[in-house]
Amino acid sequence: MLDIQGLRKSFGGVVATDNVTMGIEAGELHAIIGPNGAGKTTLIAQLSGDLAPDAGHVLFGGKDITTVPTHRRSHFGLARSFQITSVFMGLSVIDNVALAVQAHDGHSFRFWQPATTQARLRKPALEVLEKVGLIDRAGSIASALSHGERRQLEIAMALATKPSFMLLDEPMAGMGVEESAAMVEILRSLKGEKTILLVEHDMDVVFALADRISVLVYGRIVATGKPEAIRQNADVRQAYLGEA
Amino acid sequence: MSDTASAQLNDHLRVPDFFGSSTGRVVTLVFMAVLLLVPVAAHFLGIRLQLVSLDFITRILCLAIAAVSLNLILGFGGMISFGHAAFIGIGAYCVGIPAYHGYGSAWLHFPLAVVASAAFALITGAISLRTRGVYFIMITMAFAQMGYYFFLSLEEYGGDDGLTIYSRSVFGIIDIEDKMVLFLLTYACLVAAIYSVYRIVNSRFGMVVRGCNSNEARMKALGYNTYAYKLTAYVIAGGMCGLAGALLGNFTTFISPDMMSWSRSGELMFMVILGGTGSLFGPVFGAVTFVFIEELLSSFTTYWALPFGILLILSVLFIKGGLNGLIQRGWKRD
Fold first, then answer.
1. In a shared domain, residues A200 and A101
2. Which residues of B are less than 8 Å from A103 in CB distance?
3. In this predicted structure, what is the pLDDT of residue A184?
4. Interface subset of A 209-238, CB within 8 angstroms of B
5. What is the ipTM of this complex?
6. Could you tell me if residue A62 is inside a domain?
7. Residue B194 and residue B200: Cα distance in Å, rounded?
């Protein structure tokens, strides 16, 4: 579904993405793991369109989207969540999600009718909030949410754009044990329904959820395979899991 | 699963109140009533006090419309434009120049003022909005200064000496040579401007503009072409400010490039910030307070700008959400 071909990105002398070639198949949950500074977020940013690669191509559903701007990629069915929580702090939770629904309900050059009374925006928003377990906070201002709740909202907004493919950048970052467990359940419910590229530090989560795992070290994919194969892979153990 | 969602739906179909909180409603309505009735009463009672005269209040109302339009992009859209006075100048010259050539119809002046200002906003906005932060502030100011020097160089229309308008725009049925009529027209335009902003900021378009203010990267990731929406908001604000300029030109019957100097733009920003950015009536509170304090201080001392500046700094530092915030919270500081 998503094909990455020879992707390269460097910042000055640092090669953050070094000739990455990989494919993500429709319906799988593909995890990317790697130590800090391996270039995971840089890779995600190139897939979402926030960063332009120096070389290489990104194909989505067979179509070359390498130079397609971020906002148009979303309309191809590609959604992302951010590693650093990125919601609309001053708006209510439901407004946040309704804005995501609205993005895929025609153009927004509608200047007069109130948006906040439109059931066709609010109802899908509430349904998504229910799915991620945030419906009871629908009326709260986003800035009043706990960190874990904001992470849930982050996923809700990505979901509300009805994506076929989701780029999830460390959805569990900074979460407590209980919050993490809730997020795992959300991801499990999405599995099979959406194609997911998951970047995550929590190894238990990754090995429990992923269909396939790619290991990124210094911008390079050193291994790709099923969780069991990755666990056994000597290169990975040495380069990443820190065992000799 | 959608049963719960359906059950809760009606709780979440609401539009923010036009006047905000209940305290906000009372204070705002009283304030707007005073703004309308006091100068009218003073006029009929023959009170010759400058501060309640039709002339003085009409000028404030014109600036309030400009501030309301600036607030749409600055307050709601997060676009800190330092060149908003350019639209006032363009609007005013759209009255002055046709009048100079003998075309006196308001049905020419006012649409021209709105269209010309919107066109200027479209061209300058298309370039300015490619930058952000300090660069956006500087480039909007630079464009306004270009407008300033453009009109300064038009010898035919008075250059820096300005241009006198010998008769106000002719509407046909209503006669704005009568200052009461001009006052009422300006008041009606202000109310219409505030109501339009209310409708716009709560519409789908307005939600997008507010989203861009809050988190533009997220808006792009959601699929919005943020540039197009921000530019549209900029054009609407420009057109609305052009209207303010046409009214101000009619009011002063004398226009000069000074109307669009950068310090004028700065004053408009002060009004918006003082009144409360991103609020509906804040710019009106800000404009009235600004001009009143300016008038009062300048009657005591020629160095009025110094205490005035200190007052502004203190108000920004200590009143969260500006005057409107204070009113909405019922005079509590935060």
1. no
2. 219, 222-224
3. 92
4. none
5. 0.89
6. yes
7. 10
